[in-house]
Write a structure and sequence with these properties.
The chain is an alpha+beta fold. It has three domains: 140 residues; 249 residues, no CATH class; 27 residues. It is built from 17 helices and 15 strands. Strands 1, 2, 3, 4, 5, 6 and 7 form a seven-stranded mixed beta sheet that branches. Strands 8-15-11-9 form a four-stranded mixed beta sheet. The protein has a four-stranded mixed beta sheet with strand order 10-14-13-12. The chain starts with a strand and ends with a helix. The relative contact order is 0.12.
Length: 438
Amino acid sequence: MYNLLVTAREGDWDKGYYEFDKSRILEYTNEKIALALKDLTSSNIDKLKSYPTVFAYEGENSDFQIGSIQSITERGRNILIEFEFREDIPPIPFEKIKPIAPLLDIRSWEMRRTHWAVKEENLFARLQKIGITVKENTLKKFNQGRPTADKSKSPKITTVQGFIGKVLSLEERDGNEVFYRGHSDKIKYKLEPSLFRRDEDGNYLYKDNEHVIYRELLVSNSADFQSDVYTLDSLVRMQHYSLPTRLLDITSNPLIALYFACKSSINKEGEVVVFSMNKKNVKYFDSDVASCVANLARLPQTEKDQIDFESESFNEQPAIKRLLHFIKEEKPFFEPSIKPEDLRRIICVKGKHSNDRISSQSGAFLLFGLDAVFVEEGTPDISVSRITVTNKNSILKELDLLNINESTVFPYIENSAKYVAQKFKFDKARSSTTKHDG
């Protein structure tokens, strides 16, 4: 195991400290490792510090330096690290690394992006094979073990009654609005929208083509979107059709979330995530901030990458001017001024109940801004707590008695037909018991 840290700015590694945007951490990292390290707990911080670290610059013309991370501190949306280099390992020219880059799981395009990856490779063993000596005390200093997820400390429920008791006992409700989300596998799923999902090797599946897939669905199904006034309306409809978007579904009905936590991965522990936020932070479909963030979907990734959030002339940048053009299409009187921080926020939005599914699921959404990351422990605006769910089959039967099932959660005739057929399907064991009782 080792850390690979890449930055674009020459001289950044000369200072002994560096700040990474949270959105750039665990990119190009094996999915299982990323899931194990997704929470920045003290235990995971210790694991990251225990791995040897490669410090590199974007491109292929600079040296690799080997060192260690001394401290990791959260700073809002950034992570501050302090580090030092190993004096016993001199800088290594990239030309010497390049032939073994695939063996170190360093991908060619990876050296063109600022990020922090964690690689499941034995760095020192690979270096020694190309003639770079690593002293014994250095080998002993670092950990090469694979990370494992920390055990959950969230309360566990096995019945609907127990779940309702936990929900009613939570203190998040005082003056706040509360929403819920169900995960069928508490280890596998993160609080991120489908647009940000990655493959097993940590490569983004959809994010770089967001503007293309948005337009392609509009082109091929334009009649379905004719009634949409705002880009957010279209994103909600696209989410309904399972297109990857920057929306994350949440619900105001805890039993709906419990259903989703139980409906699949029957033998794995699920969870219900509870979100609590001040009511003034909940936006509606026609919110100006929601328009700013939603219209990022129409901006090519190359232009998003060019946005300088520190610029004093933020709204004069070509990418921002184009974004303003999109916003003014749906809001002609929108003032041509965007607050930089708004584009990177995660906001709770109540969209229009434009289809039966949103209505039946009491649906709302978390709308993710540019490279926004939802810290699993919560954000300054949105607090998070969790309830672990087991005994799923039994809970699903109890929810059915409360009329929460596939037919009511997904209110389409094909789902109703499937539910009715399954409910009254011949069951040999049940049939023989009935006959015996008679």
